[in-house]
Amino acid sequence: MNRNPDPEVLDKERQAVELRRAGATYEEIARAIGYATAQGAWLAYNRAMKRTLVEAGTEEIRQTEADRLDRLHRALWPQAIAGDVKAITSILRLMERRARLLGLDAPTKIQAEVTNYEGGSDIDREVARLAGLLSSGADRSSETVLDASEG
User: Fold this and answer.
1) Measured between alpha carbons, how far is 120 from 126 in angstroms, rounded to an integer?
2) In whole angstroms, what is the distance from residue 77 CA to residue 92 CA?
């Protein structure tokens, strides 16, 4: 990556990021900034994001997503306040997404009952008893076969 990019390139990349944050498609970004193709806009956006990641880390991406959610929230708020059920549902989904993104939800408590069977338990004793019966039964049946052949 070029460490000292042309100021015009930086400006185009900044515009690409701003337009993408606003929800523009790469085709729309290409038309607005002057790229020949959507791929050119995508490349500019990705260069800017890589530079941003190097400079700011993941927090910048998290903030970008939070900004998008805020913009959507503001756009839907008047309809939600007016009682539009679809807008209310969308606002609630945005709020849930924002809470997950920013880690605002409290951890969910899970209660589980665990039974631990250790050696020497009733089950182990019963398995040993049954194994003993099977082996003594096998011994007896071989004795019975021997007795019959002798007689």
Assistant:
1) 10
2) 11
